[in-house]
Design goal:
Layout: E1 2-7, H1 14-24, H2 28-37, E2 43-52, E3 55-64, H3 73-76, H4 87-98, E4 105-108, H5 124-133, H6 138-159, H7 169-172, H8 174-189, E5 192-197, E6 200-204, E7 206-209, E8 212-215, H9 219-227, E9 232-238, H10 244-253, E10 256-257, E11 263-272, E12 282-290, E13 299-311, H11 316-328, E14 333-340, E15 346-354, H12 359-369, E16 376-394, E17 397-405, E18 414-418, H13 420-430, H14 434-447
Parallel strand pairs: 1-5, 5-10, 6-9
Antiparallel strand pairs: 1-12, 2-3, 2-4, 7-8, 11-12, 13-15, 13-16, 14-15, 16-17, 17-18
Helix pairs in contact: 1-8, 2-8, 5-6, 6-8, 6-9, 6-10, 9-10, 11-12, 13-14
């Protein structure tokens, strides 16, 4: 399995994401085959090479029978010519001409009949039916459905309607169906199991669309970012850098928003944007594997978060309940330490150890379930010993034990312990005290080291 880092400092759209994935090595023939299998007329796809910011990039284009003006700068920004560098139009055309000797891989989907309308209004149920008729894998279908559902919820919220009552051409449009299904197929093709992502960059101004002139970021993007806690920063680029499809893809991948971790890079892919902004828009994607050179095969050196706060006005029942909630929500460890606070008040210091991506969710529980009005947190490193749990046949009967192995750098010793729940069950079954049972088992394990 591979890990993926998405560098979205220039924004993201569906076609940019797909192009970046194809540049990383996603199966292009599989993408074309799946898109062909949905049997919708009125579009074709083309994959080519273009140059942006003096870099060679992949371009994924959904060609429509009826133009949707998605990259028509005069249509999208009719009153903002002064903000746009139209030289990029000429630059892009020259690059495409320059690469004419390369093959532009195009796959047509049926005959383009005049009765096929690009702006057909479809609801979420219609789109999911189209996805399920395709030859995509089960995982790809699930991811595509998740992406569409995220967009549908955002549009429903923007229009004040129930999700099943929303008919909108953004999701129903052929290009959105092609982009999202292709994105899902690419992710599945690359065997990606972990995604990291930078904060998303957005532009400013207004954009002309089917709903009229809307402020940037548009309502659907705002809803997706808010609902999925996606960090965003606004740049000085005039124009829309984040499309609803792009935002929904990020949300569906549920990435960790953090810098690229220590790793071994496998490949970098660039997905070109179509719109001619002053600053070229593209997605940079990095395929990588975790770097284990500084980690012994016997232990893991990873990053965690320690959350702390002091509580001086809560009952034992509430503190116990809070600990249970935090453990259920994925905390690695929860503990209380007796402390004295100002005015010599006895209190408890709560300490929670968790993964970085659990910081916000666990902080929410602490601040809602306790009387604390603030907390502090700090990133930390930890060393985790290699551990194995196995069944051990003792003279008292079978019991589960844990074997922990230190790496050579830390001495190479091996320690074996009985697992508590298994030890307790064995003591009760043999009518012995827990202390007696523990001594017998540990004695046997020590003798067999």
């Amino acid at each position: 399995m591979n890990s993926l880092y998405l560098d979205l400092k220039s924004g993201i759209s569906g076609d940019m994401f797909v192009a970046a994935m194809l540049d990383l090595g996603a199966d292009q023939k599989l993408v074309e085959s799946v898109l062909s299998s949905i049997n919708l007329e009125g579009f074709s796809v083309a994959v080519s090479r273009v140059t942006k910011a003096n870099l060679d990039m992949c371009d994924f284009k959904v060609k429509l029978t009826v133009d949707n003006h998605d990259s028509d700068m005069d249509y999208l920004f009719p009153q903002a010519h002064r903000h746009l560098d139209h030289e990029h139009h000429d630059e892009e055309h020259s690059h495409l001409h320059e690469h004419e000797h390369e093959h532009e891989h195009e796959h047509a989907h049926g005959h383009e009949h005049s009765h096929e309308h690009h702006h057909d209004h479809r609801n979420l149920k219609d789109v999911i039916a189209i996805i399920n008729k395709s030859t995509a894998s089960v995982n790809a279908k699930r991811l595509a459905e998740k992406i569409f559902t995220i967009i549908a919820k955002a549009e429903a919220k923007a229009h004040g309607k129930a999700i099943e009552d929303v008919h909108f051409h953004e999701v129903g449009a052929l290009d959105s169906i092609a982009d999202i299904l292709a994105a899902a197929v690419c992710i599945d093709s690359l065997n990606i199991d972990k995604v990291y992502c930078s904060a998303l960059a957005e532009g400013y101004g207004e954009i002309n669309c089917c709903h009229g002139v809307l402020s940037i970021p548009v309502p659907a993007v705002c809803n997706i970012l808010a609902d999925n806690k996606i960090p965003m920063r606004q740049t000085d680029t005039f124009g829309e850098l984040i499309t609803p499809t792009g935002a929904a893809i990020v949300a569906a991948l549920n990435p960790t928003f953090a810098p690229l971790p220590q790793c071994v890079m496998l490949k970098t892919g660039y997905g070109a944007g179509k719109r001619a902004y002053v600053k070229p828009s593209f997605v940079r994607a990095i395929l990588f594997k975790a770097d284990n050179k500084e980690e012994s095969a016997l232990y893991s050196n990873d990053e965690i978060i320690k959350i702390e706060c002091n509580i001086d006005d809560s009952s034992g029942e509430l503190l116990g309940y809070l600990a249970e909630k935090l453990q259920q929500a994925g905390a690695f460890d929860v503990s209380y330490t007796g402390v004295f606070m100002k005015k010599n008040r006895p209190a408890y210091e709560l300490k929670v150890i968790c993964a970085p991506d659990k910081l916000l969710s666990l902080s929410k529980i602490i601040l809602n379930e306790s009387t604390s009005i603030g907390l502090r947190y700090i990133p930390m490193k930890r060393i985790i010993l290699k551990r194995e749990i196995f069944d051990y046949e003792s003279k008292l009967g079978q019991i589960k034990v844990k074997r922990c192995t230190l790496p050579d750098e830390l001495g190479g010793n091996v320690f074996t312990y009985p697992e508590y729940e298994s030890l307790k069950a064995l003591a009760e079954n043999r009518h012995l005290t827990l202390k007696e049972t523990d001594a017998i088992i540990r004695g046997e394990l020590y003798a067999k080291r």
